[in-house]
Amino acid sequence: DREFARALGEQLAAQLGTEQVALYPDDGHLQLTDQVLLDILTLEGSLGKEAVLVVRWTLVDPASKAARLTRRSTCTTVPSDGSHDAWVAAQRANIGKLGAEVAAAMRTLHR
Q: Which of 54, 82, 96, 101 could form a disulfide with 41 if both were Cys (CB 3.0 to 4.6 A apart)?
């Protein structure tokens, strides 16, 4: 969904120290060096107990369309209390963890 993509894009921008992050479909103004394909497998949990995010993601070379790397990330965070707001905050933390994993893989590929 677009909101998830936007949140992950913000995490990647922060982790990579750049504002040069575009969401698909992009406006064509950026020279793309990487493309991230996401398949959200699980986005669930229980209020007050856990928030779970499981994503299969692939880094793709935008020029050749070749997959450079495919991984599965499982992120779990315990909400601070039993409220819906705390569960949403825990899922945001999970998106932050996912962003850190993807950014680390991108940095490794570009060494």
A: 54
Torsion, Cα 30 24 94 12, to 10 degrees, reads: 0
pTM: 0.90
CA 55 from chain centre, in angstroms, equals 8
Q: Nearest CA to 70 among 30, 102, 103?
A: 102
List, for residues 43-69, the tens digit of each pLDDT value: 999 999 999 999 999 999 988 999 999
On whether the CB atoms of residues 23 and 2 are closer than 8 A, the answer is yes
The kind and range of the H/E element at 72 are: strand 67-77
